[in-house]
Amino acid sequence: MRQCAVSVDLDEIGCYRALFGLSPVEAGQHAVYDVALERIAAFAQHERIPLSFFAIGRDLERCRAADRLVAALVEAPHLVENHSWAHRYDLSQLSRPAIAAEVRRGADAIEAVTGRRPRGFRAPGYCISDHLLDALVDEGVRFDSSVFPCPSYVAVKTAAMLGLRARGRSTAAILSDPRVVLAPADPYRPGRPWFRRGERDLVELPIAVTQKLRLPLIGTALSLAGRRGAGLLTRAAIGRPVVSLELHGLDFLDEADGLSDLAPHQRDLHVPHAEKRARLGTAIAELRAAGYAFVTAAHAAHTVA
Ligand SMILES: [Zn+2]
After folding, report:
1. How far apart are CA 292 and CA 285, in angstroms?
2. Which residues surround ligand 1, an ion (CB under 5 A)?
3. What is the pTM (predicted TM-score) of this model?
């Protein structure tokens, strides 16, 4: 049966500012938990889909964030998975014990708030390594969903980072390992190296790309594509056994949410959040019409395993 797992990475605004080399500011810094989360829960309820939130453990130290997350879980079968403790973009390059500590601390923080130990992991910036997968297996993680085997994304990200460097700006991001484009685009058991199929004791759920050109089927792309474009992109992915549709909290915000100085760097913030929601709704409707069942990422991974 075809399955679609919709996930939402709850990266706070500071993650984006660090990406673009911007200094932290007060305005809008907690907009993902304090503004977007309620919109996300309403979206999921309207669309009748369970979500998999990928939360950064450190963010949950703020009581208001933890409360908002718990409130979003009350009326729906959403699950919270692990997006690491501190969202270090260079996580995949740390030593195996250092990675394990980040994974464990993130899981501890999420379990303390939700009462459930996360079973899944998503790496910051989609960057993984053999070290990282080894650490995940050590920590008992059952599935990873970080591989984004999208040539156009790798090209655009690389060009953007080189552009920032050329202008003398810093960025917290690291370059993607270009071998990610060799990875399977459908769920697989990673081997060694991680972008080949093998025997590791966990499942990889790659972030969705279209069938032929491997264009990105993620929230940012859908937000920027317009409603018709969102429909076309989604239809081009249909046929994959599992569509792991990755959204971000930012997909439910716009520049009017105190984010006007981030908007020149993050273009989708120029699109009103209600319009972005409509474009995401187009994608959900296309998948539903094609017979996809909406499940949590943990469920999809379990089925594959
Ligand atoms: Zn992230």
Report:
1. 10
2. 9, 11, 124
3. 0.97
